[in-house]
Design goal:
Elements (H helix, E strand, L loop, with lengths): L1 E10 L2 E10 L4 E5 L6 H9 L6 E6 L2 E2 L10 E4 L11 H11 L4 H14 L15 H13 L5 E5 L7 H18 L2 E5 L3 H7 L2 E6 L2 E6 L1 H6 L4 H6 L4 E11 L2 E6 L2 E6 L7 E6 L5 E3 L9 E12 L3 E8 L2 E7 L9 E6 L5 E4 L2
Helix pairs in contact: 2-3, 2-4
């Protein structure tokens, strides 16, 4: 349904570089990445607001370059909803219908029906400035869907909503996509939104897609160091591979050695990453001699809702995620224990 092939674009100091992305019909694809990586620009390329410097944008299998935005039959909802502040909710939703040539009375009737389907029909004569964030979001969705698009483009549509309204609106999008067989391209920073909505996700960093796949795969098995950083891997260290025997690499990180299942050869500078939830804390070394064991002491504890983040100072400083409340108070000497299989290794230090 959406195809970006070899897309490059330069806007001031920002650039997209050889982006290839394909979204299947009826699929929800979540585009993730740090701020400034080009996610919104990609949405606007699909919508027709920017011509690419190189490459092809395809919609429904056809080169979309001859078609202006109004002829691409896509709906776009921005983070700030971009409703016309001087128009009522009814007029906002009817606007696209009128531009498409619908008679005024028919456009207003259809707009009213759409607002009612979003449970905000009672707000027909209200202006955006008098509506809550959740109400404005529903109005923006109704306006985007008024022209019956096959493709819905969403630019962080839930970021300004409180948790309860956010959860409700995520459910609305999921139901809409299923009921209308919509193809959805969603820009989001939220892991929760990606897991709740997306069939697949793509990670855009520095104007280039570095990884694609189901959201759990992207966060569990980051393909690059940049992907690991974006995914929130808490412990990242630079080191040098001292030896490697049958795919078991010993990496010197400062004063400590970390063992990983890696094919990196001796002498190679690498970055090794360990997720906080993959580390256990214990007073005694484990029975299994194959485990990594780094001694230290508990230096700080951050209590969260249902888990704690524990800082362990030793040869290196580790962050450890502990379910519930921590067993060991600040000052306790402990061993940080983790298997070699859970150490992610990337080339470069």
């Amino acid at each position: 349904m959406i195809g970006l092939e070899g897309i490059s674009l330069h806007l001031g100091r920002f650039s997209l570089r050889d982006v290839n992305l394909h979204v299947r019909e009826g699929e929800c694809y979540c585009l993730m990445g740090p701020s400034g990586s080009g996610k919104t620009v990609l949405l606007e390329l699909v919508a027709g607001f920017h011509p690419p410097a190189a490459g092809t944008v395809r919609i429904r299998g056809r080169d979309a370059s001859p078609f202006p935005p109004e002829r691409r039959h896509v709906g776009l909802v921005y983070q700030d909803y971009s409703l016309f502040p001087h128009m009522t909710a009814l007029a906002n939703v009817a606007f696209g219908l009128r531009v498409s040539g619908a008679p005024a009375a028919e456009a207003l009737r259809m707009a009213g029906d759409l607002l009612s389907s979003f449970d905000i029909g009672h707000l027909c004569n209200r202006f955006p400035g008098t509506m809550s964030g959740g109400e404005r979001q529903r109005c923006a969705l109704a306006r985007a869907l008024a022209v019956s698009p096959d493709i819905l483009l969403l630019d962080e549509p839930f970021s300004a909503l409180d948790p309860a309204i956010r959860t409700e609106c995520i459910g609305i999008i999921r139901d809409l996509a299923e009921d209308r067989a919509l193809t959805v391209l969603l820009v989001s920073h939220s892991r929760e939104e990606a897991f709740a909505l997306a069939d697949r996700a793509g990670l855009l960093i520095d104007g280039h897609i570095v990884q694609e796949g189901p959201p759990p795969e992207i966060f569990s098995h980051p393909a690059t160091l940049e992907a690991a950083r974006y995914g929130g891997v808490e412990n990242i260290f630079c080191g040098t591979v001292e030896e490697n025997t049958n795919g078991s690499a010993v990496i010197q990180v400062g004063p400590v050695k970390i063992v990983s299942r890696s094919g990196s050869p001796p002498g190679r500078r690498v970055s090794c990453c360990i997720k906080a939830q993959d580390i256990m804390l214990g007073l005694k070394p484990p029975i299994d001699p194959g485990m990594n064991v780094l001694p230290g002491f508990v230096s700080r504890i951050f209590q969260c809702e249902d888990f704690s983040m524990v800082s362990v100072e030793g040869g290196v400083c580790l962050t450890v995620r502990v379910p519930g409340s921590p067993v060991f108070p600040v000052g306790t000497r402990v061993n940080a224990i983790f298997p070699p299989e859970d150490v992610l290794v990337y080339e470069g230090g």
